[in-house]
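User: Hey, quick favor. My workstation is busy. Could you predict this chain's structure for me?
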Amino acid sequence: MSAKEKAKAKAEQIAGKAMRKSGHSRGKETTAAKGVALGVRGKAREAKEKGKDLFKR
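Assistant: No problem, here it is.
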C-alpha cells in the first residue's frame, strides 16, 4: 500500500470518528451519520489497498 493512500485512509477514519462523536454530543444525527459514512469510506479504502498489495506479491 502506498504511503499516500494509507495516510488518506487513516485521515478519513479519524475525521469520521471525530464527526461522529461531535454529532452525537451535539444531538445532530445527520452530522453523526456523515461521520459514520466517512469512517466506513476510510476503512473501505484501506481494505482496497491491502487487497491490491496481496496481488502484487
